[in-house]
Amino acid sequence: MLMEHGLRDDRLAQGLGFTQFLTPDGGLAKQLDGRMDDSLLLDMYRNMVIARQFDRKAVNLQRQGRLGTYAPFEGQEAAQIGSALAIAKDDWMFPTYRDHAATITRGQSMTTVLLYWAGRLEGGAGTKSLRILPPSVPIATHLLHAVGMAWATKLRKENVVTVGYFGDGASSEGDFHEALNFAGVYHLPIIFICQNNGYAISVPFSKQSASKTISQRASAYDIEGERVDGNDVLAVFDAVSRARERARAGGGPTLIEAVTFRYGAHTTADDPKRYRDQELATDWRAHRDPITRLKRFLEERQLWTEDFEADVMADATARIEQALDEFARYDAPNPLDMFEHVYAEMPWHLKEQAAELERAMEKDGMQP
Amino acid sequence: MSRNLNILQAISEAMDQKMEQDGRVVLLGEDIGTNGGVFRATDGLLEKFGEDRVFDTPLAESGIVGSAIGLALGGMIPVAEIQFLAFMYPALEQVLSHAARMRFRTRGEYSLPMVIRTPYGAGIRGPELHGESVEAFFVHTPGLKVVVPSTPYDAKGLLVSAIEDPDPVIFLEPTRTYRAFREEVPEALYRVPIGKAKVVQEGRDVSIFAWGSMLQLAISTARQLQVERGYSCEIVDLRSLAPLDRDTIVASVQKTGRALIVQEAHKTAGMASELISLLNDEALVYLKAPIKRVSGFDVPVPFFSVEDDFMPTQARVKQGIVDTMLF
Ligand SMILES: Cc1ncc(C[n+]2csc(CCOP(=O)(O)OP(=O)(O)O)c2C)c(N)n1
């Protein structure tokens, strides 16, 4: 059990090149650099708490039948938020179906996330202005889109970076390798951020790959690779910040492996008891939780107070309630919307099929 | 000014002129740069436009199509070459799951102005998987446009339209006709609209629908039957398989009352099946005979010792026309 995930043992993790700023008990493993000032630390904490509250709410909504299947991320907040805070407004973000902590931190509305999981067509829109792509459901395919985007920004001489998120399972897909290879060949300003949560649905990383780490794959493509403690928001922030600066200075791509764990199921449609020792989740929560860890550190620095916590929780509640309100106020979906946006201009056959559906929607749909 | 060009030259000229006119147009694919493409469609473009416009990519089809999607998201207009249609299979996920759906998924926030060009079809004595006609995969997928030029004039004009189109276009180039014949092609940049079929030859007795390399077969067979039996065949080149030009197709059958479809693809669930459905819906009462189709067989496109037997032949097309005329 110890090594299934390969991560319970700190020494092992260290041996595999695992970098850390915050130890699990909230101590400092490394000196903070100037960028990590108090306000950033507090911002990290706030975003992590808000994201976790949102995630729990979403799971509940799914149980109430108000959302379809949902992919929870609780436990992975540090990896997502540390990276999201390390990039700038004009950088591009290519998330997966699980990266809502990252997208919400970047400014995506929670309502959009709820709409997405409620199966509403609107759930894929409203993010272009934030330079966030809609969640990718096929595994690893979007990493190539991120590559193309980074390529385009380079050709257009825009000095921005692109980040692509993915899981450990994704690192087995051909598209992951094609993406790293293209990024290396064209020396693109891109950061690949892997949240290695130890499992791809039921398959542990030890069965996913014979490589010990994901970050070591970088060397095969001659790009930068780094393995960080993904439950240490500072370590993630630092690695992504450095990767971003390097990319902007023409230093090319970076592959970052953030070692983390997801406490809950793969999705609300899945039962982790079938394949995972649940003690593992309990253990991670008790000893490595990214929020508790930062909280201890903030307490140590006298930045965390009861008042601050109350404020953060109130903020979370208010934002979630507002999103739920907005979500509830959406009109019933209009089935005719499915014919929109298939092409730039609706072709004749779609017009006719839409008319057919419209007739069917009226009474019994029969014409005299 | 116009010159006598073959299809390849016409295609090359379309890319050249669009690249000159619009700095967003970039080319990517395997061997398209220094080598100018295995069929030379991109010959000379690397020298002319440089390494920031023409990319010899790694050998990775998903990589090519997937990164072309990203390039399009990022404001470029990528024209990707896939060396042969069957080598699109490793990239099908990118084509079907992403290229076709990005506009829909994002409710129109993003569009993907991109073209995937690829030679397709048998008749070139190629090795295995160098002669497939699986246009139906793409026609079946909402969100894609599928264009098949059959002549040099159309090849240039359609490719220009494809590059300017806001939707992803699968541009299928009938390999066998690449250098088969020449035609007057204007030097200026012009467009042939996507979604419009062309009545290549007017006739009274039977409508023949064809595209790609089958068009020439339809024309030569019709000519023979005109001489031998006095049949007056109307020939329609579909040019665009998605969207389909219903009006031209239906009008032709309303006039002739008979129809034959010639497709190189496998028979089952191909484009011909779709055309028969369409005519069933729109022109049944005009029909004097059941609609016939002449197709490739439902076998893997075979090795070249029997390649010609797989493809529709003049004899089979002739028989098809005679059958429908004598029904
Ligand atoms: C191409 C593809 N194959 C299979 C699936 C089904 N599937 C969804 S998530 C998943 C596991 C993904 O694991 P990982 O990449 O580690 O990400 P995680 O969800 O654990 O963060 C699978 C197999 C899919 N979505 N796409």
From TrEMBL, chain A:
Enzyme class per UniProt: oxidoreductase
InterPro entries cross-referenced by the UniProt entry: Alpha-ketoacid_DH_E1_comp (IPR050771), DH_E1 (IPR001017), PdhA/BkdA (IPR017596), THDP-binding (IPR029061)
Cofactor: thiamine diphosphate
SUPFAM superfamilies reported for this sequence: Thiamin diphosphate-binding fold (THDP-binding)
EC number: 1.2.4.1
Keyword Oxidoreductase annotated: yes
Domain Dehydrogenase E1 component, residue spans: 45-334
Gene3D superfamilies for the chain: 3.40.50.970
The protein's assembly and partners: Heterodimer of an alpha and a beta chain.
Record function comment: The pyruvate dehydrogenase complex catalyzes the overall conversion of pyruvate to acetyl-CoA and CO(2). It contains multiple copies of three enzymatic components: pyruvate dehydrogenase (E1), dihydrolipoamide acetyltransferase (E2) and lipoamide dehydrogenase (E3).
Protein name, per record: Pyruvate dehydrogenase E1 component subunit alpha
Classification lineage: Bacteria, Bacillati, Bacillota, Bacilli, Bacillales
Automatic annotation (TrEMBL), chain B:
InterPro entries, A to Z: THDP-binding, Transketo_C/PFOR_II, Transketolase-like_Pyr-bd, Transketolase_C
Annotated ranges, domain Transketolase-like pyrimidine-binding: 5-180
SMART domains: Transket_pyr (SM00861)
E.C. designation(s): 1.2.4.-
Cofactor requirements of the protein: thiamine diphosphate
Gene Ontology MF term list: oxidoreductase activity
Stretches assigned to coiled coil: none
Keywords assigned: Oxidoreductase, Thiamine pyrophosphate
Protein name (Swiss-Prot/TrEMBL): Alpha-ketoacid dehydrogenase subunit beta
Origin superkingdom: Bacteria
Keyword ATP-binding: no
Primary enzyme class: oxidoreductase
